[in-house]
User: Fold this.
Amino acid sequence: MEERFEKYEQRGQKNKSESFEEKRKLKHGRFEKRSVRIIKENDDYSLGVNPLLKWKNLKTIIEISAERIDQKTGEVQNSKRYYISSRDESSEYFLNAVKDHWQVENLLHWHLDVTMREDDCRCRVEHSAVNFSSIRQLALGLVKKIVIMRSKTEKLSVRTKMLKAGWDNDFLLDVLLQ
Assistant:
């Protein structure tokens, strides 16, 4: 995919099917800049995006570039990711779609890794890893639905609710029967 974008750069001109979008923000002590470039294939495949027609209905190649600068250390991290899509959408659409996907993905996996210590699980027999993962996801969903206030303004964390369910059978029953 990267070579397709390089070919367009080497031509020295923007192809009429290429578009660009950029967003900047300060978050968690880091300055983040994300940009997206897309190349859209013509109906006659003349752009060569899909030269061997490997991907049915391929319409767009997406390149997402990210630059993060840590405000405390000044450390700079750069990354590029490539995607393909059968959708014919704007560069802004793809930038938001990728961001939204990773936001959901990170929220779920953070809780599974940190709160439920999924990475430490050593289940290896037959389907046990998949089964335990499904049980963890179900338990996480049930625990997240229960809203308990520690005070008028502070909610209990997922970890605290899990501990409470382990200590208090009545609370565990509330979680399971909600």
Q: What stands out?
A: Residues 43 and 59 are 9 Å apart (CA to CA). Strands lie at 18-27, 30-40, 60-70, 76-85. DSSP finds five helices and four strands in the chain.
